[in-house]
Amino acid sequence: MSDQQAYEFDYMAEEGEMDHSIDEMDEENRGSDEVLDEYEMLTKVSDTSSSQARKGKDIQGIPWDRLNITREKYRLTRLEQYRNYENIPLSGEAVDKECKQMEKGDNYYEFFHNTRLVKPTILHFQLRNLVWATSKHDVYLISNNSVMHWSSLTGNLLEILNFAGHVAPTEKHAGRLLEGFSQTQISTLAVKDNFMVVGGFRGELICKRLDKKGVSFCTRTTHDDNAITNAVEIYDSLRGGIHFMASNNDCGIREYDMERFQLLNHFRFPWPVNHTSISPDRRLVAVVGDHIDGQLVDSQSGKTVASVFGHLDYSFASAWHPDGRTFSTGNQDKTCRVWDIRNLSSSVAILKGNLGAARSIRFSADGHFMVVAEPADFVHIYSTKVDYKKRQEIDFFGEISGVSLSPDDESLYIGVCDQIYGSLLQYN
């Protein structure tokens, strides 16, 4: 993302993606007392269970029968009025003309629960990897200035780390920033097994072991003015041990080990790197950023092995299929493209969203499904077994802070960021 975007912390309403709060439904048509009564009614909305949803209750608890607009009409209004953010003007329009959507109507994951106690939040409108499931019951997410843990088994919400004040490392490692950080503005998050890495707007990286108190390691990757940490991935390394890779707006990706927290590699690119993902065999890295083309890079040398062409805007998401041959890229041109490394001359599939950019992509561990999240309202689950030609469409209202499949593929979690309807959706 550009310098200007990196510092637009409070993305203004008139600009695009984060301006569509669903509590504004039809407000201008009513008197202030009526709006106040309705606000009280809406804020009392409780959780929704699968049995309630089967009986007809809205999954988010929106009382459509008491509103001045039907769900169908409001959906049409959102589709007409939602503005997809583009760095390259009209990229989405060009895709709309060229691209048809895949058939919807399949049902791979079933609604299980909507938890209103959990309030996911987003700080940067383009960065939406803020929800991570480490088991079918355990979810980590960003809520205001904190990393929270939600247990769907016990119904408990626990604060893991608060960034409003001061955070400093408790372990001694070379290169650590002893004084730590104050008031870190969180841009991205990754959690895997027992490890958590949080990235910040000024190049901060904060690492924590979930079984220990305190923070293990703090460092600032760069003092570049435009140093936002755009994405982090934690993985089992080719060399052994757990590593993580951080994508940064200073045009670099950095690899660290998670035992000693030492910088192992620093690869540089000609544009800001918005997302990276490492292949299952750990030999290739998919790299996307502020450029219409994506790259495949050798994980050891950092040399570009191949480029992929076809997107019309900047990309903010990538993911590998467990087969190690297929990977996907998500773009602000409203498409997710699927690629096969055996023939990169064109994409295997072009999958178009309803409203906006493909901001998060996740493959299931068994490889049967690919989950693609738009900025708001829609999450698509594609069947890989029929070449992505069939999909389940999960349809709700609100900005999406992140999506995550549990490691056993049993649960799918969706973070919904909204003033009134903020919640965590769970599908099984």
UniProtKB/TrEMBL annotation:
WD-type repeats, residues: 308-349
Protein origin, superkingdom: Eukaryota
Keyword Ion transport attributed: no
SMART domains membership: WD40
InterPro entries for the chain: WD40/YVTN_repeat-like_dom_sf, WD40_repeat_dom_sf, WD40_rpt
SUPFAM superfamilies: WD40 repeat-like
A matching Pfam family: WD40
Amino-acid biosynthesis in keyword set: no
Keywords on record: WD repeat
Name the record gives this protein: Uncharacterized protein
Taxonomic lineage of the native organism: Eukaryota, Viridiplantae, Streptophyta, Embryophyta, Tracheophyta
